[in-house]
Amino acid sequence: MPQPTDRRYGPASLPRARGPLSTAVSVALRRPPHDLAADLGADLDPADPLTDEDLQLTLFLCYELHYRGWRGVDERWEWQPSLLALRARAERPFEAALRRLVGTPSVPPAGVPAGLAELVAADDGPPLAATLQRRADLAQFREFVTHRSVYHLREADPHSWALPRLGGPAKAALVEIQTDEYGNGQLDRMHAELFRRTLDRLGLDTDYGAHLDKVPSVTLATNNLMSLFGLHRRLRGALLGHLAAFEMTSSAPNRRYGNGLRRLGLDEVATRFYDEHVEADAVHEQIAAHDLCGGLVRVEPDLAGDVLFGAAAALAVDRLFAAHLLDSWAAGRSSLRADTPPTVSLAVAAAAAPPPQPVTA
Fold it and tell me: CATH number of the domain at 108-330, please?
């Protein structure tokens, strides 16, 4: 099948597997679409779904088929029924872990904007932004940017899944926010492009998905959270709550990130991505809380609790991410993954994989 030749814009190469399930999925994706073994992943019950490397990579492998796909992978895998069934089985422990972590708040529809503000005000996550502003060295800042590249090189895309699922004031508000994220249709102003320049200034690979093998499960979880919400219509309220939490907690940290890069001697090209968010997200904060989420629950009041669940989940998973970076640096080690081989060899998984079945277009 034809593949784009410009690797900056995807699709990415399949990342290295991290366990038996992601190995089996990776092996399958390298072959023509076929039915996966019915018992594949039958024991999907990780001790901690939010930090399980195998589970989180498996989810990312499945979700990316709905974004830009994988280089060399047949695009028909996107809707292959047995892979969708496996994905659903992997999603169940992930979503259950999120709900155990934050619950599903109960709030009247009129209280959603205030509830979002209270969640943000009460968030006492680790001081990652302050550390990057004041103390982080260049190597640590490069690590931070490496982690964030997984999202920022497709910035806004997960939240755009909500557009066809909304109507009325919430849809109008989301279009307003997303228009800014996509640079008002100008390539050089798209936030993903601004971030690509930051990567380049820091001497990092700017290709889409280039750093997947380096980032740990907690980084994948921050991205899988958005995909979980975005790809399920029943979770549209949570997706908008997630976006609101993003916008309401963005301006001050991005100011710190930009100042941290300036402290390290980087120029305005490197800092523009963060500087742009200081101004844009100060405006988006009000739109997201009142027009987007408030507008949604005025039309669909039963989604009020879902909105706060999505916001709380966004904040909680980001706290786990920040704690991982700061704990790693405090211990004098990298926050990125060590260069280790897959847990299970591809040869073992290939031997156990079912033979491909004919697939009709």
Answer: 1.20.910.10
